[in-house]
Design a protein that fits this description.
DNA recombination; globular; DNA integration; single chain; DNA-binding; Integrase_catalytic; 3% strand; hpI Integrase, Chain A; 2 domains; mainly alpha; Phage DNA recombinase
Length: 312
């Protein structure tokens, strides 16, 4: 058995819901014949290091190199634990070092204009999106800033997944799987709290519809995800904004919600991050805000201390 046959089996049996990896990263591993043709009995750390160096020499970003190395390591670990294949996982990060700089946090936030009489980036973005020929585009963008869902999650939502009375939304039911699909397979659909801003947005949206939507109707009708992505990029440029991806809206929403939910476990339940380490990558607080919070906490504690001394 070769590395290629192992990767192909994993692709066919375990990656039905991971389209991006099947289109991009799996073919990239298979194309590297120096690695994929290696027999498992001859597989070594040198093979993995060679794969890493060839990717880097080809100009791939460090994050892409790490993604493919980690995917290879996951495939081998699955073969060891589930298929009883006797092989050492030389692709593990404990064996082969990953390129530096791949885990750099992205810190793009929507900026306010220093001149308060001029619109900030949020206002400019919304104005540009409102000009879209697809009316639901602006609802989707506003929703993402309020609820912090991933784009794919938002587009799979149906009105039947929303419970305005209980203030919850359901992901991973009949409408599809989310990034945390393995948890859903064990525990059922993921239920997340509906933020007050997102709830108000949906109530506002309902008032604009000609009739009450069916439970199976999509929350946002923006066409295909790829078509929306193209439109979004064009509208961001029309707004004069630079380096603002749609996923940055999730960063923005997470950072805004963090001000209201100081407990990171509560915040994680809303945003759907798998763990606190993942959450930390998306939480982008403004340093000045943290400083003010500390100053306010010191002030309150000082007042309490002074009050206690007066009572004594």
């Amino acid at each position: 058995m070769t590395i290629a046959s192992l990767v192909e089996r994993y692709r066919d049996e375990c990656m039905a819901d991971r389209k991006a990896d099947r289109i991009g990263h799996i073919p990239a591993i298979l194309r590297d014949t120096a690695l994929s043709s290696v027999r498992l009995s001859k597989f070594s750390a040198a093979d993995v290091r060679g794969f890493r160096e060839r990717m880097s020499a080809a100009g791939y970003a460090a994050a892409t190199v790490v993604k493919r190395l980690n995917l290879l390591a996951s495939i081998i670990q699955h073969a060891i634990s589930e298929w009883d294949i006797a092989i050492i996982n030389h692709a593990s990060g404990r064996v082969v070092k990953r390129p530096e700089g791949a885990d750099k946090k992205r810190n793009r936030r929507l900026q306010e204009n220093r001149d308060i009489s001029l619109p900030g980036e949020f206002e400019r973005l919304i104005k540009a999106i409102e000009a879209s020929p697809h009316p639901d585009d602006v609802w989707l963008v506003r929703w993402s800033i309020e609820q912090a869902t991933r784009r794919g999650e938002a587009l799979q939502l149906r009105w039947g997944d929303i419970d305005l009375q209980r203030r919850t939304l359901k992901l991973g039911g009949e409408s599809g799987k989310t990034k945390t699909h393995r948890h859903q397979e064990e525990h059922g659909p993921e239920i997340r709290p509906l933020t007050p801003g997102a709830r108000r947005l949906l109530i506002e949206r309902l008032a604009t519809l000609p009739h009450h939507p069916k439970p199976s109707q999509a929350l946002f009708d923006v066409g295909t995800e790829a078509a929306f992505s193209v439109r979004y990029g064009r509208m961001v440029r029309d707004a004069g904004l630079k380096d603002l991806t749609f996923h940055d809206l999730r960063h923005e929403a997470t950072s805004r919600l963090a001000k209201l939910l100081p407990n990171p476990l509560d915040l994680k339940r809303v945003t759907g991050h798998r763990d606190l380490k993942s959450l930390d990558r998306y939480y982008q607080p403004v340093p000045e805000d943290i400083s003010r919070q500390i100053e306010e906490a010191e002030r309150v504690l000082g007042m309490l201390s002074e009050d206690k001394s007066l009572k004594d």
